[in-house]
Design brief:
The structure holds two protein chains of two kinds. Chain A is mainly alpha-helical. Chain A is 79% helix and 0% strand. In chain A, α9 runs antiparallel to α10. The termini of chain A are far apart. The longest helix of chain B has 37 residues. The chains are: A mainly alpha, B mainly alpha. The interface between A and B is large, with 65 and 57 residues.
């Protein structure tokens, strides 16, 4: 097993998975919050824009989004996301993968935050309105802080799903864990079970602490009412 | 409680005016994005008859769309039926009175939920190809289906177990007091009611299964994404082909989620269950 890890540079593949997860998590948190704000706003057009985004990306397979990022957005429409140097292709695919993961998971982040909003008692927003806060102030000081605290569990679930979903970007050749797995098996099909065990263990090691952490955090951060 | 209701009062004249301004700005934003996308498409020569005409031809449907959608639906259907069966078995095992069985099922469920679907698919596919020397289209098909069954079976098992846990305690007690054994209570009283209560969630899980069939692209199962890509290469209209493929997926999944929402409303009106009706959301984010 150690020989496998060394020969196929497994740890750099794990590091790539971690990098993809972190960047995509950051991006989808920002975009998802923005879309949640659109959906919560009193303006019909913005609500519609937000819910259309969520409907589209929740119902499109991630594989389609990832492959389209490469074949359509980059290849056909010519969006350049990396400088033309020695690592041009690797950089391009890495960034396109993050773009696709962000676009897809933002829809789920938006729904998680909305479910967090639903944990807030009516009285909070009513009190905020009665002391004269505007929609923006209400959102910034009263609704969103409590919504994030109430949404820790669903957000954690999105993060765990995101970690697992980074495997899909092997479709455009980003060298993360599932890509390493394919290469390992293609060269060493005699140790198929060892490879599978190693990869499965990697994901258990990556996601188990996340699950425990969100469980702990959701209790710690929950607004005591 | 709807989010909108708690956030706003009925608007007065000043607020209505402000909303009007925001509506104008919002429309500008939406139209700006749409116009930007259209302009890029136009600029790159994607909005021309020779790019769009092929997808409306008989050949495109006969060779690409219909076989693709068919392969996607076949894989999804087999996976749905089998993962519901596996889910029920695993749920029964996890609630069993036998400690050993309970532990085994718990480990199996947690393992399949932690390992990404694609990893399962790759494993099954490569095992069939390298260990069992399987040739042709069976290995990709089995890879897709078995991968989906393992993951979704585990998720459905958890949904069923949550459904049973949400039933009032009296259901079980009443069953025991009329002399049923504890496994009979589960089989005849608890699980049927849990299934009814969780039906909207279970139908939403179908969306997840249908979406994940697209992972078959990676192990060369000829599903919709694969045929869309082939069509794009053949007619030189990748953008259009992908748009059509995405629309097909969105339409199929949207229909299924509407069914789930309809079920949720209907069951809330007249559900034959003591449990709380679940929401029309998938059992696990995916």
């Amino acid at each position: 097993m150690l020989e496998l890890i060394e020969r196929f540079d497994f740890f750099s593949a794990v590091w790539m998975t971690v990098k993809l997860t972190l960047w995509a998590a950051l991006g989808s948190l920002i975009l998802g919050t923005f879309i949640a704000v659109l959906r919560l706003s009193p303006i019909k057009v913005l609500q519609w824009a937000g819910s259309t985004y969520v409907t589209v990306f929740r119902n499109t397979p991630l594989t389609v989004v990832v492959v389209a990022a490469n074949l359509v957005i980059w290849n056909q429409l010519g969006l350049e996301v990396a400088a033309r140097n020695a690592t041009y292709l690797d950089d391009t695919n890495f960034r396109l993968a993050i773009l696709a993961l962000v676009a897809y998971h933002a829809a789920f982040v938006c729904e998680a935050i909305r479910s967090g909003v639903n944990t807030i008692p009516v009285g909070q927003a009513e009190a905020a309105r009665s002391i004269g806060l505007t929609f923006g102030q209400n959102l910034r000081h009263i609704i969103l802080p409590q919504a994030f605290r109430g949404a820790v569990t669903p957000l954690g679930n999105v993060l765990i799903a995101l970690t697992k979903n980074t495997t899909v970007v092997t479709a455009i050749g980003v060298a993360q864990v599932s890509h390493a797995m394919r290469r390992m098996i293609e060269f060493r099909s005699d140790v198929l079970f060892t490879v599978f065990g190693l990869v499965a263990l990697t994901f258990i090691v990556l996601t188990l602490p996340l699950g425990i952490l969100t469980g702990w955090a959701s209790e710690k951060l929950a607004v005591k009412r | 409680m709807s989010a909108q209701a708690i956030l706003f009062d009925a608007p007065g004249p000043k607020t209505r005016q402000r909303h009007l301004i925001w509506t104008a700005l919002g429309s500008l934003f939406v139209f700006g994005v749409a116009a930007g996308v259209l302009w890029i498409l136009w600029d790159k020569g994607q909005i021309t008859p020779d790019k769009w005409a092929p997808i409306f031809t008989f050949a495109a449907w006969k060779q690409y769309f219909v076989p693709g959608i068919q392969a996607t639906l076949v894989a999804a259907l087999v996976a749905i039926v089998a993962s519901f069966a596996l889910g029920l078995i695993l749920a029964m095992g996890r609630m069993s009175d036998l400690r050993v069985l309970r532990i085994i099922c718990t480990v199996v469920i947690e393992f399949f939920r932690a390992v990404p679907v694609l990893i399962m698919m790759l494993f099954v596919f490569f095992m069939l190809v390298y260990t069992f020397r399987m040739r042709g289209g069976t290995a990709p098909f089995l890879g897709v289906v078995v991968g989906l069954i393992c993951y979704n079976g585990a998720v459905i098992a958890e949904v069923v177990r949550n459904g049973v846990a949400s039933l009032p305690k009296g259901q079980r007690e009443a069953g025991l007091s009329i002399g049923l054994s504890s496994s009979e209570v589960r089989r005849m009283i608890l699980v049927p009611q849990a299934l009814t209560a969780m039906m909207p969630t279970l139908v939403s899980q179908v969306v997840v299964i249908l979406k994940d069939t697209a992972l078959g692209y990676i192990i060369l199962y000829p599903e919709l994404l694969n045929s869309v890509r082939q069509m794009g290469s053949r007619f030189g209209n990748m953008t259009v082909a992908f748009t059509a493929g995405a629309v097909a997926f969105i339409f199929l999944n949207w229909c299924i989620s509407k069914v789930a929402e309809w079920l949720e409303r209907r069951l809330q009106r007249r559900g034959h269950t003591a449990g709380r009706i679940a929401e029309a959301e998938p059992g696990d984010v995916d």
